Amino acid sequence: MTSRRALTVSPLWVQGSILTFIIGFSFLTFSALRIYQDSAPVPEQIVDESGKVLFTKKQILDGQEQFLTYGLMQFGTVYGHGAYLGPDFTADYLHRMALFMNKHYGDNEVARERTRRELQANRYDPTTGTLVWTAGQALAFEVIHQHLSDSVYNRTESGAGLKPNMITSPEDRRAITAFIAWTSWTAVARRPDQTYSYTNNWPPEELVGNTLTADAIMWSALSLVTLLGGTGLVLGVYGRHSQVVGWHETEERRVRFVPPSSVALTPAQRVTAWFFLVVAALFLIQNLLGGATVHYMVEAGGFFGIDLPKYLPYNLTRTWHLQLAIFFVSTAYLAAGIFLAPLIAGREPRGQGILSAILLGALAVVVFGSLGGEYLSFHGMLPRGLRSFFGAQGWEYLDLGRFWMYLLIVGMVLWVVIIYRGLRPRLAIESRGNLPWLFLYSSLSIPAFYSIGLMTHTQSTFAIGDFWRFWVVHLWVEDFLELFTTMLVALIFVLMGIVSERYATRLIYFDVMLYSIGGVVGTLHHCYFSGGPAVEMAMGAFFSAAEVIPLTLLTVEAWSFLQLGSRQQSADDAPFPHRYAVLFLASVGFWNFLGAGVFGFLINLPVVSYYEIGTLLTSNHGHAAFMGVYGMLALALLVFCTRYLAQPGDWNESLVRFSFWATNIGLMLMILGHLFPLGVLQLGDVVTNGYWHARTEWFLNYPWLSWARMPGDVVFMAGSAPLVWMTLKIALRTRKSPPPVDHSGAALEVSLYTEITPTGEVARGGTSVG
Amino acid sequence: MLPKLTAWGITFDLGLVLLLAYLLILWVGGWVLELLARVHYHKAQKHAHQGFAFDLQLDRYECPQGELLTLQTFDDRNKLAIYKAPASSCNACVLKTFCTPHEEGRHVYRSLAEFQETDVGQFHRWLSLIILAVSVVFSAGGVLAWWNKPGEWLVVIALGVSLVLLWLDIRDNPAKSEGDAELMAEITTDKW
Ligand code: HEM
Ligand SMILES: [Fe+2]
Predict the structure, then answer these.
(1) Is the CA virtual torsion A750, A751, A752, A758 positive or negative?
(2) Which of A31, A268, A660, A682 could form a disulfide with A352 if both were Cys (CB 3.0 to 4.6 A apart)?
């Protein structure tokens, strides 16, 4: 093999990154071990005081599976995790149980004291696996089961976003209530030798004596210290060494951008035109489903008088809304990877086009197959044995059936193969720490961490299943996708000649270090109250505060550089072709700051999360961060790549401009007009009237406020619709260019810019990275 | 709907307090947003020629090796002032490979564009206009809700403030921002 090009940055960067990565994952692995040892136990059997078996472990776990596969986690929540139209089943059960017991025991102060004592007492015997319920608990079960049957499982007419007769089997219904009752038991029974429950006393509930723990207060304070100290530290180091790492350039560069219509296209690149059509179409459908989902908050029984819940109940529209958000963004990333690989390698091996087309086909099968599976599962149309495999697993964000999950992983692996084949000529001659390799690792991390979702089963103990689920959800969005984003932006700027490879590479290593400290262990900020040990809360709070640092620091810097870089370096006679791609990237920076940094931290401290979890403030953060960062990035990639794929006549700059403004302004209006103010009001209600109240009764007070969502939604959708039209034209009439390569492997004449000297002549043809 | 609170002997309408607090967040938010973006834009401008000291009086740069770069020409389309060092001294310089890829002497491109003229500036300007517009809508809603009730005058004042802020922001257009560069030079020269 030929000798490799040397590492473009100091080896210290590589070593530092590997070290922080290992440290971060050691902490997370430690927390994994602890959660297996110390999560809330599922008893072998629950008996009444006479010893009669009420339920078995099998029934409880079975109930969890029914709960999930009928889509109830996409209707309401358990432990505050899930969807927000329905109640929090854990808190609601707990509240109803306490009310019932108070009444049953005589409705006076003595009764209230007795209820509290009985509920807090931990009557679980680990040696026999038996949990004893008092008479009050056992009787309360029957009453609440009847209530849940009437209002959720087996309604007589559409309402609350659900259809009538949803769950027909009485055993299934009973098992589901058993699961819910078990979660409520974990929320109030004190841990052996501790003064707080398995859920760190969540939910706040006066009737049972659940209040904020001392640990939660202490770790919140320490979390603030990490944030302030960490920011100070990083600012100090960064201020001193910002000439070494940061978004800028010290070398003089001036480039002429090649007009997009004269950049040669490879077969695989031309296939991505269809990927981007799929991106735009999924995005539009995703938006429409979001509209239907929010409409249920105003009119829970239908859609402007139509009996929508019969066909598309709330839990289904919400599931599709979330799944399509993931799908449209992923499709854009896959396409961008395929599009960029030949630019980096300078050539394209035979067969990449076909492979890419196969990938697109596979993706279509997964998307429509899994959405169909969810439909069948929620409507009870699949036999029980097949429901979680071909139907839906029902864990929020990992909603799709296992079969579809396997297929999606196969698809993503195929994508990595495509990237690897594409980069191979270049990889062979590069040091393993250089940009092309980093791009490959970053691509690999995406399927690798998605596969960890397979650790979550419909019958996993809840805290454990949820823990692994957040390895995917959290580590994707707050670590690997942030890195992939920096990677793509850096690469695009290197490919356009605006930043040198050395600067870009350093920046990526710097990001790896910052995210490995905060982002990795920060996963645990989702596990404060779902039944894991208290140490998860401590680590989650302490480390996740550090995540905010790179978000606010680096992205703000990048966001100003983007504009300056593209303007300053471009030579005057050829206009900069990516005005809107760069603007979409600037909006990624803005939303990273506001949506992830500010709104994420707002709900991050345990003392806040204790009241806030599962309210509209989470939704506020979710929208601002996910659409704002990854959605806008997907659109940036779409705009960047289709600029080259379009025939000059099909490129419509004013349409893209409209989309840019409409999506950004629409998102801002959704947040300021609806999600944020309503979220604050709801949080206030949690504090004053209790969690169960804020999740049920409170909503009834503000039906009119949900209309405040309308303007934002309409403006936003007006922005997504035109992109479908444009990408359709581009896919149907993708620009043809002379084949840029003979398959003998000769280098492509693909470059996006040429470097010019002050006297105007071309000094160096800039081909690809380097 | 929302309860009344009593503190220091005064009874507050919680809804009104929350509304006013939210308006305050919007006013400050809109302003901070533009300020942050502006400061970072100017910081990025400074970074763009790191190591090169600019002398405003003499209108020239000094490179890390002490060579002077004088004004050569303007690029009107991109609003750049272009400075250049003598080719002979650059070509003899030990740092040449880290500095410039060609033989004509290092150039420095100083952007004359004001923040609001840039696309990113426009983006943030529009966002802050939207934020202030939302504050107008919310305070107008407040005026309707509290009309003829205690606290009426507070929402009326809030509506006035929202309108004035929105108007000031609309008025603050690119053509009228000469002071900008100097102000920002001050903010960004320190230890950020
Ligand atoms: C671009 C980056 C981010 C994205 C896309 C994102 C997305 C999301 C989403 C979709 C949820 C809702 C999860 C659910 O419904 O269970 C969520 C929850 C949450 N996020 Fe983020 N987030 C990001 C960054 C951050 C950051 C930087 C922080 C704070 C340091 C943060 C803190 C939280 C917290 C505390 C929750 C609620 C915990 C829970 O309910 O599980 N997020 N995030
Ligand atoms: Fe997270």
Answers:
(1) negative
(2) A268
Query: Which amino acid would we find at residue A240?
Result: R
Tell me the CA end-to-end span of chain A in Å, nearest whole number: 20
A714–chain B nearest CA distance, Å: 15
Domain boundaries, chain A: 45-211, 219-228+270-295+308-530+542-732
User: Is residue A503 within 8 Å of residue A584, measured between CB atoms?
Assistant: no
Cβ of B119 and A251 within 8 Å? no
pLDDT in the model for residue A506: 87
User: How crowded is residue A700: how many other Cβ atoms within 10 Å of its Cβ?
Assistant: 8
Domain locations in chain B as residue ranges: 11-42+117-191, 51-114
Q: Does B127 touch chain A (CB under 8 A)?
A: yes
Interface of B with A in 67-106 (CB under 8 A): 75, 77-78, 80, 82, 84, 98-102, 104, 106
> B18–A701: do the CB atoms touch at under 8 Å?
no
If you average pLDDT over residues A521-548, what whole number do you get? 92
- Which of these, A434, A210, A476, A126, lies nearest to A330 by C-alpha position? A476
The whole model's pTM is what?
A: 0.92
Asked whether the beta carbons of A40 and A198 are under 8 A apart, the reply is yes
Check CB contact under 8 Å for B123 and A590: yes
Residue A745 above 60 pLDDT?
no
Q: Does domain A219-228+270-295+308-530+542-732 have CATH number 1.20.210.10?
A: yes
pLDDT for the residue A494: 84
- In this structure, the number of other CB atoms found within 10 A of the CB of residue B9 comes to 5
**Hey, are the CB atoms on B44 and A250 less than 8 Å from each other?**
no
- d(CA A81, ligand 1 centre) in Å: 12
Residue B188 has pLDDT above 50, yes or no: no
Q: Which CATH architecture has domain A45-211?
A: Orthogonal Bundle (1.10)
Confidence of residue A391 (pLDDT cuts 50, 70, 90): very high
Tell me the C-alpha distance between A282 and A288, whole Å: 10
Highest mean pLDDT among A236-245, A740-749, B98-107: B98-107
CA angle A504, A507, A513 (to 5 degrees): 145
Q: From CA A755, how far away is CA A252, in angstroms rounded?
A: 11
Position A262 confidence tier, pLDDT thresholds 50, 70, 90: confident
Q: How far is CA A573 from CA A195, A471, B109, in A?
A: 73, 49, 16
pLDDT tens for each residue of A281-326: 999 999 999 999 988 888 877 788 888 889 999 999 999 999 999 9
Q: The tokens of A178 are what?
A: 């058993």
Would you call A132 helix, strand, or coil by DSSP?
A: strand
pLDDT confidence tier of residue A263, bands split at 50, 70 and 90: confident
Nearest C-alpha in B relative to A593 = B33
Q: Amino acid letter at A258?
A: V
Site residues for ligand 1, CB cut-off 6 Å: A 80-81, 396, 477-478, 525-526, 544, 547-548, 551, 596, 600-601, 603-604, 609, 613, 618, 621-622, 625-626, 629-630
Nearest-CB residue to A672 (from B82, B118, B131): B131
Burial call A387-419: b when 16+ CB within 10 Å, e when fewer: bbbbbbbbbbbbbbbbbbbebbbebbebbbebb
A584 or B7, greater pLDDT: A584
Closest CA to A46 of A38, A32, A36, A56: A56
